[in-house]
Amino acid sequence: MPNKEQAMNYVGGQWYWPDGAGEIRSINPADTQDIVCVAPESSAKDVDRAVQAAKKAFAAWRRTPPPARAAIVRKAGQIMAERKREMGEMVAREAGKPIAEGLGDVQEAIDMADLAAGEGRRLYGDTAPSELPSKLCLTFREPLGVCGLITPWNFPVAIPAWKALHALVCGNTVVFKPASDTPKCGEFFVKALIDAGLPQGVINLVQGRGSTIGEAMSQHPDIRLISITGSTVTGKHVAEVCGQTGKHCSLECGGKNAEIVMDDAKLELAVEGALWGAFGTAGQRCTATSRLIVHESLHDKMVAKLVEGASKLILGPGLNESTDVGPLVNESQLKKVLEYIRIGKEEDKAKCVCGGGRATGQAVDKGWFVEPTIFTGVTRKMRIFQEEIFGPVLAVVKVSSLAEAVETLNDCEFGLSSSIYTQDVNNAMWATREIEAGIVYVNGPTIGAEVHMPFGGVKGTGNGHREAGKTGLDIFTEWKTVYIDYSGKLQRAQIDTDQVLADQKESV
Ligand code: UN1
């Protein structure tokens, strides 16, 4: 293929293709004949090269005043705003998202630049009194060093931004591995930072497979933190390796998010929320609605409206303005989702009331499209209720009370996002307290997180960290505690404190 577009590595300020590296093809999932680019199958050697560059750059970057670091991040945000259309179109082409969602992805990165840049003038620490006279206690946030960032294809600009922009403002240097399905989007993101004036070696981009590059990053002794968004299986493995090599590790893994609809809910609103939550991004969001828990009094009406709404959704390439639902990202994902649909059809009592197969027709024949699919009669033990499918498949469960609804929602290994539709504030607040999830929406779908709020989940979804928000800073910094003694003598904590009180009494 002459003149084929390449997505290269960027290390120490140089773009390069590793000698003899194999090619990973980035394919437009809506038209598998369209090869977006090829990326190198980099090796552990490339990871090491990137880590050495990041280590070298760290010495100066950590001493750069945070407002100066933030100025570059702000500029990168402005550049992404200028390139929003071009980047959004690349998201639509490479990841298959409808163009409005592609633009939303880039907007989320711009928003994140705005948030992270502001932190350059905060990064607040604490001051505290000492138990001893003429002594002062302070805390400072310090960068960790080289951070390894492993990101998914489904938010190929936004999630790198969540991770990298906080990491950089905090003074870390970065080795970034984008998903092998979306190397070009990863490159576009890095280019915005380079063009904003980020010094050489501060961000390094290594393209390749997770099994090689992610593994080499997790193993590397000079990487201090791995932050990964991916499947629970991969996340757990990375956490194990990080444990063995003494790294920090922040995990953002699977979800099986549910929308609860109570008997007093505004039905149209709940239906709209479920359609957007379940079929937006073709169900390929960590926050997608994959379970719908409906009060029996509304169940039949709601299912009928959902089926009507789902069958009206327009499937097609993301670059078509009229598309509502794009393709699945790759062939193995297509096979996995179709397999789950097959399992659902065979599961006891579950009934496929909408979709249920690969989509066909002129607009979709060239790509990996699956029909928006709805199962009713689902019960808690079923695999389509319990397991993350990451596709346009919604499992509907009928319940008869709020307590049963919440118990049903919680009966699952994941805990990322959740939602409840009700007009009753008491029920909403009770559910908000009882739901086991990192995010709860009241009268809104399970998707729609904003960058200035903490993002993450409980149980199998993560390991206690929250990205974005102000909590993102905790992932990318360590605390340094400083005591300043200006008494001019040795003062012993915990021991001389009695003497301090005695001296105090004497002087009264
Ligand atoms: C993800 O699903 O991987 O709330 C991230 C949302 C988006 C972020 C989702 N703002 O759905």
**Ligand names:** 2-aminohexanedioic acid
Radius of gyration, in Å, reads 25 Å
Largest sheet: 7 strands, mixed
Quote the beta fraction: 15-25%
List unreliable stretches of 5+ residues.
none
Q: What is the strand tally?
A: 21
Structural class: alpha/beta
Percent in helix: 25-40%
Assign an overall shape.
globular
Mean pLDDT: 97
Question: What does it look like?
Answer:
- The chain has 508 residues and is of the alpha/beta class.
- The protein has 16 helices and 21 strands.
- The strands form six sheets. The protein has a seven-stranded mixed sheet with strand order 14-15-16-13-12-18-19, with helices on both faces. It has a five-stranded parallel sheet with strand order 9-8-7-10-11, with helices on both faces. A three-stranded antiparallel sheet has the order 5-6-21.
- β5 and β6 form a beta hairpin.
- α7 runs parallel beside α8.
- The N and C termini lie far apart (90 Å).
- The mean pLDDT is 97.
- The protein binds 2-aminohexanedioic acid.
- 2-aminohexanedioic acid binds at residues 108, 154-155, 285-287, 447-449.
